[in-house]
Amino acid sequence: AMEKSYVSMFLLLVAISCALAKDVDKKETKETTAKPKLPQTLSRGWGDQLIWTQTYEEALYRSKHSNKPVMIIHHLDDCPHSQALKKVFAENKDIQKLAEKFILLNLVYETTDKNLSPDGQYVPRILFIDPSLTVRADITGRYSNRLYAYEPTDVSLLYSNMQKALKLLKTEL
């Protein structure tokens, strides 16, 4: 399993390198003053206009330095529940707008950080981490057997949990 994840990580890096190499040729002088646009692959369809981080470590670093909470979405491409949640998440204007206030990361693989799977490794699950790098285990969905799972019908709960993650931020720091 470890070898498999190394291989997929390597292929991902190769793909990103190729994509970036192609972009270099296309760059024009006036474009360099604009904000750099990340390859859309980082969004994986969760919101192409949002800025997504590439790694868990990068998300933590950005959170700490920008004082924004992290929102991590664990999902799988071949999971129907993940796909259904992604569709609702990407199409919900309020969620997309609120998501701009977060450091965003969506993962199709598990991290080694046990704090990100407090009640097991299942998908989809969404966790929040505050800038003090504390996983907000208190911000949960509605299912007692999968605390951080959200179904497409839970979109309003997800929205209020996103607001909660932002609110707690202001009162605690």
TrEMBL record:
One GO MF term attached to the UniProt entry: dystroglycan binding
Keywords: Endoplasmic reticulum, Secreted, Signal
SUPFAM superfamilies: Thioredoxin-like (SSF52833)
Protein localization: Endoplasmic reticulum; Secreted
Pfam families, sorted: Thioredoxin_7 (PF13899)
Main location: endoplasmic reticulum
A single Gene Ontology CC term: extracellular region
Top-level taxon in the UniProt lineage: Eukaryota
Organism field: Sula dactylatra
Top-level taxonomy: Eukaryota, Metazoa, Chordata, Craniata, Vertebrata
Signal peptide: 1-21
Similarity remark: Belongs to the AGR family.
UniProt name for this protein: AGR2 protein
